[in-house]
Amino acid sequence: MEAPSSVQRCRSKKGGSRRGLRDLVKACWSNPTSEREEENCVSEFSLSSFPDDVLMECLVRVPRASLQGCMMVCQKWRQILKSDEYYELRRQIGRIDVLLFVFGGAGAGLASAIYCKSSGGWNAGLLCTYRALVDNDWLLDYYSADHALLYAQPTVIKNKIFILGAAPSPSFKSGGLDCTIIYDAWTKTLTRGAPMLFPRKKFACCVIANQIFVAGGAYRNDYSRDAMFDAEVYVPELDAWKPLANMPRKRYGCLGAAVNGMFYVIGGLKFSSTFGLSIQPYAYVSSMDCLDPKTNIWQKTKALPMGGCVIACTVVKSCIYMLSSHAVELSFWKYNTLDDSWCKIKPPPIPSPLRIDNYLKFSCVTVGSSVYIIQVGGSIDDLLRRSGRNARGLKEGLVLIYDTSLEEWSRGPDLPYVKNGAACAVVHC
Fold first, then answer.
1. Of 111, 240, 257, 322, which has the fewest Cβ atoms less than 10 A away?
2. What top-level branch of life does the organism fall under (predicted)?
3. Residue 107 to residues 110, 177, 377: CA-CA distances in angstroms?
């Protein structure tokens, strides 16, 4: 076969160019019939027409930052994203992030700082958007009122934070109606739930089987601050609180922990009252009570070996880690609920002796297998200067991390700002 000549090659190139140009021009002309067929084809194969299980597999892989927008696509998507099955499937495939929220305290309570374990940094902002404040008048009661969340206690169920004990201002539109504030970490929205049966402050709380247990404290509107032994439980599905059996003794400023389905109420004060001109002395309760929710019976009181005042606690697996104050120093303890044993462990790396005042406050939370101790009030440097020592860079916002596996302390990134009495909560979302 003879090879094509240069003239034939030139003609074939021109022919190919002309055909390409002709096809391009044809593609530019609109064809109403074909366009309608294409639209029908697209509508028939939209994402919403997928079976629910296939749609679920697609939505569980959506980044957390896009979940708020996905909630507004349609009612079907919203129901899927709010279902328990969606949360569990997202957790199984490793799409859950660990976020540490710090909010409340003195001043505007809705200001917050959020720590992401994967990024290792803090972000400061509001729990909700300004648009949400405009659309929900009741939120202004908590946003504008100073100290509205000063004594609030957070509990977490899946991707939601339930803020208990908030005190709204009575001068705003809702008249200061009490409620349980529910924050959705996915949609960044705040909604109202039923208030506690007894408005209280300085109480113990925890979550067991997706229900919130509360005990002790003092009546929030009672200036005498008389301690309580009342207990109650919140059922989210019913949005209702139900009374429980009273504790064996009154406790004010107590702490709560949940281990293996049991509700532990730790420490607190025996007296916190003022009767007439007689001021009752503060006396620490060196014990803890334990409620079995299945039987609604309080078990025998257990003594605390450390003395002093337990100021913060958290749970890692079957152990309760407690931070105790002894006026001039801090101690750190581990209580193993399986064998009922106590162990004093290495204290946080804070200079001692250090005369600890009422302004120095700490909060304990669990992130993975580590205990995070967060300074949410006071200034350590000021206390050091009062004792004649120079400042050591521990002014405020201190974050100390105790690795329970290595049994070692390290220092995390400081809080971007500190509000006295702020609350801390860890959300897996």
1. 240
2. Eukaryota
3. 9, 19, 13
105 lies in the same domain as 142: yes
Cα separation, 34 vs 25, in Å, equals 16
Q: What is the span of the domain harbouring residue 170?
A: 97-195
Single pTM value for the model: 0.82
CA–CA separation, 388 vs 285, rounded Å?
Answer: 33
User: Distances in Å between the alpha carbon of 333 and those of 178, 259, 346, 425?
Assistant: 36, 16, 8, 21
Q: What is the pLDDT of residue 329?
A: 82
The residue out of 152, 169, 195 marking a domain boundary is: 195
Q: What is the reported pLDDT for 298?
A: 97
Q: Show the low-confidence residues of the chain (pLDDT under 70).
A: 1-48, 105-109, 141, 143-148, 168-177, 222-225, 271-282, 352-358, 381-395, 418-419
Q: Do residues 182 and 159 touch, judged by C-beta distance below 8 A?
A: no
Q: Are strands 297-298 and 287-292 parallel, antiparallel or unpaired?
A: antiparallel
Q: How many CB atoms sit inside 10 A of residue 293's CB? A: 16
How far apart (Å, rounded) are the C-alpha atoms in residues 251 and 284?
Answer: 9
Task: Tally the domains of the chain.
Answer: 2
